[in-house]
Design brief:
This protein is α+β, with helices and mostly antiparallel strands. The protein folds into 2 domains: about 5-70, no CATH class; about 85-210, no CATH class. The protein contains 5 helices and 13 strands. The chain has helices at about 85-95, 125-135, 175-180, 185-195, 220-225; strands spanning about 5-10, 15-20, 25, 35-40, 40-45, 50-55, 70, 100-105, 115-120, 120-125, 145-150, 160, 170-175. Strand 9 and strand 10 form a beta hairpin. The model is unreliable at about 155-160, about 160-165 and about 220-225 (pLDDT under 50).
């Protein structure tokens, strides 16, 4: 397994640390995707806590009994980019299976308003405002499935809707679009949707999630001219 010595920057800007970054070995470019990469120093096995985990394997380029530096590996998985911490929290809630599946035709409407897509969300807006903003309308159609996701109270959020039975705050997302956004196969997403019926409530995808944010660094005028 290739091992690359790297300098890791900690949250404290004045502190750096030398680490070993490890990568898998490609067996063959034509091999099946599940067999294309091999980790000589790692193995996947059943975890004593729940599900599967990675465990050290003897041999290879690392001696796990005597590591000279901390070992890191690249993040493996699909990436979903969101615009805000609120959106991240909403999608994390979906990964936990904490949502209900509803249909567009079941959502109540008001005169002079229509349900439109506002970025990630499906929200009820005045028709005039929605048309001026060029937001596509979600017409009443029995085949259009939505996710009804509970939210923590957010002050003055235009994407918040209220369930008629009480004061619970929810937001709505397109079912198929959300599944594709989270890179989940249909059968996994259907399993999460069964949580509302108390089926497989102990199984969720939130344990497979790594959340991070990118820092945007803007060059100074002097550096830009150079």
């Amino acid at each position: 397994m290739p091992v690359v010595h790297c300098v890791a920057q900690s949250q404290r800007k004045d502190k750096r640390q030398l680490v070993d970054l490890i990568f898998p070995v490609r067996t063959s470019s034509s091999a099946n995707v599940t067999e294309r990469w091999h980790w000589p120093e790692l193995r996947a096995a059943v975890s004593g806590i729940q599900g599967f985990g990675l465990f050290p394997r003897e041999g290879g380029a690392l001696d796990w009994t005597s590591l000279k530096r901390p070992v890191m590996m690249p993040y493996l998985g699909k990436e979903t980019e969101v615009e805000s911490a609120v959106q991240a929290r909403v999608l994390r809630t979906v990964l936990c299976g904490q949502f209900d599946v509803v249909h567009r035709k079941d959502l109540p409407s008001r005169q002079g308003h229509e349900w439109v897509q506002d970025g990630l969300y499906i929200t009820l807006m005045p028709t005039r405002d929605a048309q001026a903003a060029g937001m596509p309308a979600i017409k009443e159609d029995a085949d259009v499935r939505l996710l009804q996701v509970p939210l923590e109270p957010e002050f003055n959020s235009r994407t918040i809707s209220y369930v008629e039975e009480g004061d619970e705050q929810v937001c709505y997302l397109l079912y198929d679009e959300t599944r594709e956004l989270l890179h989940l196969p249909p059968h996994i997403f259907e399993l999460l949707a069964r949580h509302c019926e108390d089926h497989h409530a102990d199984r969720n995808m939130a344990t497979h999630l790594v959340q991070f944010s990118r820092s945007q660094v803007r060059a100074s005028d002097g550096a830009a001219r150079q």
